[in-house]
Structures are given as structure tokens and as C-alpha cells.
């Protein structure tokens, strides 16, 4: 029987890599499928892995109706046995319900891949609906790591290396976008938005890799008792977060 399966994990744990591997395995056995993605780091209409793998995909828009997408292809004679749905956290709850309908009504497997919670530790609407409706929710076993070496459990958004906890839920950035220490934060400076995986301990204390490096460079012991965003020097010498 067809299933709706949600593969979840933090950033950098191999979700897109697994999505492409599963697509390859199913196609190698003669099954026909469609790859979908939204807001991929490589640009529109792509599924890309940080390992360098990339494949074309159908870009999911606000207007995308998965039921209509599958029925149109089948009407045209295309075989559709499964769907690969990457970056599923960005899908709407209604789109997730369409995926469930595809599974239940026309026996198409749906393999969805996405982050469960955003940088504020709040569930993405699409991920929440997937957890509610999926036949199975599987947490990926490839562990992303915090800068300290512990297993990363939370996704953090940074602005010039400093963790922020306010702002729009979806902002383009990547885990590879590290701040340039030589860049000036004066007039005309464009803040660098990035993402980082942290263990719960350092997420709660807002200690990012950038903040830890700054403190290490000044030969200070890492003050785990304080909020790294409030550490003098984390924001160019200011004593408040200043980036939210």
C-alpha cells in the first residue's frame, strides 16, 4: 500500500541527499516519479545536496495543487508511482492534505523531506500538518553537529554571525554563509544572513560558532553562563542584540 512518509531532521543532516538517493533507487526499479522542491539553495526548480548532487525538480508555488499535478501527468500517459517532495516545510497545510489524498485515492507513494521547526523553534505549518497526517515520521540518523561537537538539535538563524530569534519565518540563507571578519558594519554594510545548527544548550544560550571564535581570539574562557548575543564584541562592541 502507498504511504505518506515524512523524513525530518535539522539542516545539514542529509535530507536532500536521501531524497535524490530514493529517487534514484525507485527509478532504477522501473518506477515513475516526480521530484518537487521549494526554495532550494541552488535556485528554483532544483533539488540540491551540499555534497554536490543536483537534479531538476518542479518548483512548488503557492498555487501548486499536487492532486492536479499528478492527475494531469497521468492523463497525458506519464507513469507516476511516487513523489519526492523536498523542502516540504515550505508547503502549505492544504498542499500537505493534497499529498495525503494522492496517497489514499490513487495509491501514489509520497516521500516528503523537510525541517520540523524554524529558527524560533516553532513548527513550520507544512511540517506540522505532515506530522499530523503522515503514515510514518522518520528522523534522519545522520546527525548534524553543533560547533561544540554535540549532536545538533536546533536550527539557528544568524545575522553577521550573531543569532537572532525574531523575523520572518522564511529568509534566504545557507549554512555556508559565514560572516567576513574584515567587513565593515558601517554605512552601506549588507548584513549576512546565515543558518547554523546548534545543540540545545548553545541554542538556548545563543552561543554561535562566530561568537565562540571571537571570544577564543581574545583569550577569554567561553562564558556559558551568559547570552553570547549580549557579550561585548559579538555585535561590534555594542552591549545589546541589535540585530533582531
Describe the structure.
It is a single chain. The chain has helices at residues 15-28, 66-75, 93-106, 125-133, 200-204, 209-217, and strands at 4-8, 33-37, 46-48, 54-56, 58-59, 82-85, 109-114, 136-139, 154-159, 162-164, 193-198. It has 244 residues and is an alpha/beta fold. A six-stranded parallel sheet has the order 5-2-6-7-1-8, with helices on both faces. Strands 10-9-11 form a three-stranded antiparallel sheet. The chain has a two-stranded antiparallel ribbon with strand order 3-4. It is elongated, with a radius of gyration of 20 Å. The model is unreliable at 225-244 (pLDDT under 50).
Summarize the structure.
This protein has 244 residues and is of the alpha/beta class.
The neighbouring-strand order within the major sheet is: 5-2-6-7-1-8
Tell me the helix content. Answer: 25-40%
Give the SSE order as H and E letters: EHEEEEHEHEHEEEEHH
Question: How far is it from the N-terminal to the C-terminal residue, by CA?
Answer: 47 Å
Strand share of the residues?
A: 15-25%
Describe the biggest sheet? 6 strands, parallel
Shape: elongated
The number of distinct β-strands equals 11
Q: Structural class from helices and strands? A: alpha/beta
Low-confidence runs of at least 5 consecutive residues: 225-244
What is the tally of helical segments? 6
Alpha-carbon Rg, integer:
20 Å
**Overall residue-averaged pLDDT value:** 85
